[in-house]
Write a structure and sequence with these properties.
Elements (H helix, E strand, L loop, with lengths): L13 E2 L9 E6 L12 E2 L2 E3 L2 E3 L4 E4 L2 E5 L1 E3 L2 E4 L1 E3 L5 E2 L2 E10 L4 E8 L12 H4 L2 E8 L6 E7 L8 E7 L10 E8 L2 E6 L2 E5 L11 E9 L22 E11 L5
Parallel strand pairs: 5-9
Antiparallel strand pairs: 1-19, 2-21, 3-10, 4-5, 6-7, 7-21, 8-9, 10-20, 11-20, 12-17, 12-21, 13-14, 13-20, 14-15, 15-16, 17-18, 18-19
């Protein structure tokens, strides 16, 4: 996830039909009803990222939900970073998850999509081939009931990276219970949804990825960054922390007219 924001606006929410009403075909789903992460669908990263360690210990399944917990032990921060890379990837479609956030300053949580080829050409003009980063929902504590939807392309860092961000402000509040977040990605462009209602139609000048992209559920930690400062003493232990991202289910559909 990259943090540069070039354009921020607020969304107006209007009703949109869910994908199953349009003859879409399910290509991937996980209800998280097993006792452990399905290794044919996902990999939990085990590496350092920003100011935390991505750890499988932070990734649990219980009560029909996948939970990523951010916690602190012996002064070190741990969190969860789950990806379907190499296991499920798709070009075009409708991608949706039901999520509940309980964030804290110094960290943020997201549901997003990436191609393996992102930024390969080091040329923003080739983003349709290289693919783009699609941030379906990006949430942090100080956003309150709002959340960001962002598309990045061209690479990371100046002068390559291009970014368009929409700050969505749903009436029900993104940090208030369970909500669904989705993107419909078609050859014609991207449209984003919150609780089956249209949140944002991305501007037509944004390049449309033609690359297969994988799914990610992630929490990231960065002190004194865009998410603010890590609380004094950290986030609490693995058993005590209340800083979580919970996913009830995730599904992907193939759009009939899309390849």
């Amino acid at each position: 996830m990259r943090l540069l924001i070039i354009l921020v606006t607020f969304a107006a929410f209007t009703q949109a039909a869910p994908p199953q009403d349009k003859g879409y075909v399910v290509t991937f789903e996980d209800e998280f009803n097993d006792s452990a992460l399905n290794s044919s669908h996902w990999q939990a990263q085990d590496d350092n990222r920003r100011d935390a360690r991505n750890s499988p210990r932070a990734v649990t399944i219980q009560g029909g939900a996948l939970t990523l917990t951010t916690f602190t032990e012996s002064g070190k921060n741990f969190t969860g970073f789950v990806t379907s890379s190499g296991k499920f990837e798709q070009t075009y479609g409708y991608f949706e998850a039901k999520i509940r956030f309980a964030n804290a300053p110094g960290m943020w949580a997201a549901f997003w999509m990436m191609p393996k080829t992102y930024g390969r050409s080091k040329d923003p003009a080739k983003a349709t081939i290289d693919g783009v980063e699609i941030d379906i929902v990006e949430h942090l504590a100080q956003f309150g009931g709002t959340y960001d939807t962002t598309i990045h392309w061209g690479g990371y860092g100046a002068p390559l990276q291009n970014t368009r961000t929409q700050r969505n402000k749903p009436a029900s509040g993104a940090n208030d219970g369970w909500h669904t977040y989705a993107v419909r990605w078609e050859p014609e462009g991207y449209t984003f949804y919150y609780d089956d209602k249209l949140a944002w139609s991305a501007p037509k000048e944004i390049p449309v990825s033609q690359a297969a992209q994988h799914l990610l559920f992630t929490c990231e930690v960065k002190d004194k960054g865009w998410a603010g400062s890590i609380p004094a003493g950290g986030f609490g232990s693995a058993t005590e922390s209340k800083v979580k991202m919970e996913i009830d289910w995730v599904r992907a559909w193939k759009i009939p007219a899309a390849r």
